[in-house]
Design brief:
This protein is α/β, with parallel strands linked by helices. It is 39% helix and 19% strand. The chain is built from five helices and seven strands, in the order H-E-E-E-H-E-H-E-H-E-E-H. Strands 2-1-5-4-3-6-7 form a seven-stranded mixed sheet, covered by helices on one side. A hairpin with a 5-residue loop joins strand 6 and strand 7. Helix 1 (3-20) packs across helix 4 (116-122).
Length: 171
């Protein structure tokens, strides 16, 4: 992706941050609606109430995102049967760029888009950013930037959320 396109995505994120910069409280993620990457459908985050949800924000030009997405897909494949939901949010300037990237790497995860002002309201100012939501749709943790240990931390937190009440311990 060209430097100009990368810059345009960053400018869009910064402009969205300026619009919502004075907000006293972060957006309640459960009230948000994501658009499918191809633009043909939507999904409301509150439809996943009762399940832990990870929102991961990425772009095709983001090297750390390219490293992290396959690891998150492994995590999803391991925990999806237990109730874990992973929703990826592409922030490329054009959805077609995200679609080509998904095809090229063989990503088999749900990919969505989100309004820039909503991303800023959630605190998404850089990539990759992962936002872990509890079963009630509340933000548990925001992981900003790349760290190879993020999937390990997410797995531990998700397993804690999925454990029956009263059970504690680390996997």
């Amino acid at each position: 992706m060209s430097v100009l396109r990368r810059l345009s995505v960053l400018v869009a994120l910064l402009m969205a941050a300026v619009v919502v910069g004075g907000a006293a409280e972060p957006t309640d993620p459960s009230t948000l609606t994501l658009k499918t990457l191809d633009g043909t459908g939507t999904v409301r985050l509150d439809s996943f109430r009762g399940r832990p949800v990870l929102l991961t924000f990425w772009a095709s030009w983001c090297g750390p995102c390219r490293e992290e997405l396959p690891e998150l897909e492994k995590l999803y494949n391991e925990l999806a049967g237990k109730g874990f939901v992973l929703l990826t949010v592409n922030v490329d300037a054009a959805p077609a760029v995200g679609e080509r990237f998904v095809e090229r790497i063989g990503l088999n995860l749900p990919v969505y888009r989100m309004d820039g002002s909503e991303m800023a309201a959630l605190g998404v100012y850089g990539l990759p950013t992962n936002i872990l939501l509890d079963r009630e749709g509340r933000i548990v943790k925001v992981y900003a930037g790349y760290d190879p240990q993020v999937p390990v931390h997410i797995k531990r937190r998700v397993l804690e959320m999925l454990a029956p009440s009263g059970e504690h311990g680390s996997p």
